[in-house]
Amino acid sequence: MRDTDSIAIIGGGPAGALAGSILAQCGKNVLLFDEKLAWEKPCGGGITYKALQQYPFLADAGAQSNPIENCELISPSGQKVRFHMQHPVAIFSRRELNGLMLERARQAGAKVHHERVNRVSRVNGEWQLVAAEREYRASYVLFAAGARNPFRSQFLSPISASDLMVTAGYFIPGRGSLMQIQFLKGITGYIWVFPRADHVSAGIAGKMGELPTIELRRILEKWLEENGYRLQGARFYSHILPSLRAQSFVTLEVSGDGWAMIGDSAGLVDPITGEGLYYALRSAELCAEALLAGRPQEYCASLEEEVLPELRLAARISRRFYAGQIFGDSVLEKMISLTASSATFRELMSDLFAGIQGYRDLRSRLYGILPTVMAEGLAGTLRRPWFDKGGLAGDPVVE
Ligand SMILES: Cc1cc2nc3c(=O)[nH]c(=O)nc-3n(C[C@H](O)[C@H](O)[C@H](O)COP(=O)(O)OP(=O)(O)OC[C@H]3O[C@@H](n4cnc5c(N)ncnc54)[C@H](O)[C@@H]3O)c2cc1C
């Protein structure tokens, strides 16, 4: 790639916009296309502490995000626990987040086009991009078009339904300060309520093929009604989310001659939590760094070194997390009862929500804290005579 050559980025979500700003900042000629620019993309909008540390401009976004310190977890049987997160999760409206990131790209010198790219082809080693109004040329193309990436089939086989989640949700007028997560029987996914600065994003996610979207929507609506949320004035949304199986991560392809995919386009989402924003940003950064070094092929190696081992492991343990058993109980029930009964376990949960506890060293940390967790659980049981009668359904709130 010559320095004067242009790099086309299709998609101006977090992945495309960050790649655009890094590349333009370093003098590359960047053409960034988004058909909607800043829009309320279906999303929870939750950004972990780990991502805020890595991308401080997000931590500095101030009123554009809502820092949430308290989380309520609800098990499939209805056990509830609220706990304080040591590092708040910043919840963004996606219109705000995308707007902020596109503005950074613009200021760095990227040419931002409010256009849909309809077709991409390679002619004599150069890319031709066909948009509604006109055609563009580029020497390299970055696909950042999200989970529905329409260009994938030109290079790779389509993402299988078993590698996707379906989601349904509502943007609900109102404000809040409690993040809620309800796990569900028989669904590989959960209901979430993420309060943003000026509204709430509430939704449900499940593996594609498990339940039709209409059924997920019905479950969500019932839950929202039972939990005091009114849908008057709310706006419905639905979208897909990559949730790759372990074997799909093994054979994952994200780049080729003159092109690369980043973010959701590449399938880079945590298959347990659905967290994709951090991976969209990090993959964009790694890809941009490889392009700036003049060694685009190093993007794959960087992903392999830093990102994929974590995501592959998440994919391997996802089934056990949602449907497995431990100590004679389901993993989800046990996780919530331990969160209620043990301060040490709550610390672990807080670190998981902050993104600073990875999956790879989770097992060794769990083994290390197990005796303390058990002792704290036992001490709590002895202190609370009601425990035997009512179980944990009494909604313990712990700090
Ligand atoms: C319901 C739901 C809830 C989620 N909640 C969270 C959460 O709380 N936290 C989290 O970390 N992750 C969450 N995710 C995942 C997160 O939304 C994605 O991982 C993230 O948006 C990926 O960023 P991206 O830039 O790769 O893609 P996107 O954000 O999807 O951006 C792609 C962009 O490409 C544009 N585009 C597409 N095709 C074209 C075209 N042909 N021409 C021009 N432009 C085009 C689109 O307009 C869009 O702006 C959630 C996902 C869903 C579906």
Low-confidence stretches: 386-399
Instruction: Give the overall shape, derived from the CA principal axes.
Output: globular
Bound molecules: flavin-adenine dinucleotide
CATH topology name of the largest domain: FAD/NAD(P)-binding domain
Strand content range: 25-35%
Helix content: 25-40%
- Counting structural domains, the number is 3
| Number of helical elements | 13
Main beta-sheet annotation: 8 strands, mixed
Number of strands: 19
Radius of gyration: 22 Å
Features:
13 helices, disordered C terminus, 399 residues, 27% strand, 8-stranded mixed β-sheet, 6-stranded mixed β-sheet, FAD/NAD(P)-binding domain, alpha/beta, binds flavin-adenine dinucleotide, 3 domains, D-Amino Acid Oxidase, Chain A, domain 2
Provide a descriptive summary of the structure in words.
The chain starts with 5 loop residues before the first strand and ends in a 9-residue tail after the last helix. It has helices at 14-25, 49-54, 56-59, 94-108, 152-155, 213-226, 246-250, 277-292, 298-323, 331-341, 343-354, 362-383, 387-390; strands spanning 6-10, 29-33, 46-47, 65-74, 80-92, 111-113, 117-123, 126-131, 135-138, 140-143, 164-173, 178-183, 190-195, 199-207, 235-242, 255-256, 259-261, 325-326, 329-330. Helix 1 links the parallel strand 1 (6-10) and strand 2 (29-33). The strands form 4 sheets. The protein has an 8-stranded mixed sheet. It has a 6-stranded mixed sheet with strand order 6-2-1-10-17-16, covered by helices on one side. The chain is built from 13 helices and 19 strands. With 399 residues, it is an alpha/beta fold. It has 3 domains: 6-45 and 94-158 and 245-315, 3-Layer(bba) Sandwich (FAD/NAD(P)-binding domain), CATH 3.50.50.60; 161-242, D-Amino Acid Oxidase, subunit A, domain 2 (D-Amino Acid Oxidase, Chain A, domain 2); 325-394, no CATH class. Residues 386-399 have low confidence and may be disordered. Helix 1 (14-25) runs parallel beside helix 8 (277-292) and helix 8 (277-292) packs antiparallel against helix 9. It binds flavin-adenine dinucleotide (FAD). The site of flavin-adenine dinucleotide has 39 residues, from helix 1, strand 11, strand 15 and helix 8. Flavin-adenine dinucleotide is lined by residues 10-16, 33-36, 41-46, 116-117, 144-146, 150, 167, 169, 194, 203, 239, 241, 263-265, 269, 274-278, 280.
